[in-house]
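B., you asked whether I could sanity-check this one before it goes into the benchmark set. Here's the sequence:
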Amino acid sequence: MDTYADDREEKDPMRIPTKRNIVQAMKWLVEGSQAGDSLVFYFSGHGAREVDRSGDEIDGYDEAICPLDYEREGNIIDDQINATIVRPLPHGAKLHAIVDASFSGTVLDLPFICTTNRKGNYVWTNKKRRRGGYRGTKGGLAVCISACSDDGKAAETSAFSGMESSGVFTYSFIRAMQEEPPHLTYAALLNAMRSTIREASKGQFGLIGRHNSIDTPLQYAHEPQLSSSDKFDVYYKPVLM
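And here's what the prediction gave me:
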């Protein structure tokens, strides 16, 4: 769901990215899911941080996505997203969340974060909160690929055909999925996306023979983040959606 979309151009009121519609769409996504299902949640829009009032966040802040009517209805915080599309996920089902927003590193409140160690290898870090309880699924696998860390901002591109207002993150994800070899692993996906973002940070990147400059400051081009409900071998496991 793209909250950059202008609601004046959308004729169907159920497709306008209000808080109610986004929450209802998330519920619809997982309703009736079963083993073998592969679900995808995509959000492109604004992200935010709010003071954590439940005591389950290590840094003291909840991460959130901003619906079109956030000023009136409020944001959708990570606790609600987790309860809606992560915890109900049944055994054998798989969810990929692609979140192109600021402050989105742990926006699904998943317990395992993929980081790099001193040798530059990807490793999993357990971010389970002692006070927060279990934030996993009912046996399914939930994976989130987000645009930046919890304290970062996502870079945006200048407008170009077919992807107006989309972020560098979204473009790098699509490019990797389209251009990389079959059986693309999660490690290869992250590497490919980060390579594309580094190109963007130099001022230009290509799309179908064109070059486009990023509008936001260089420091906002943060690296994509990977989190999961369970640990797995990112160098071996292919990205299958």
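One thing to flag: The CA atoms of residues 95 and 155 lie 25 Å apart. Otherwise nothing jumped out at me.
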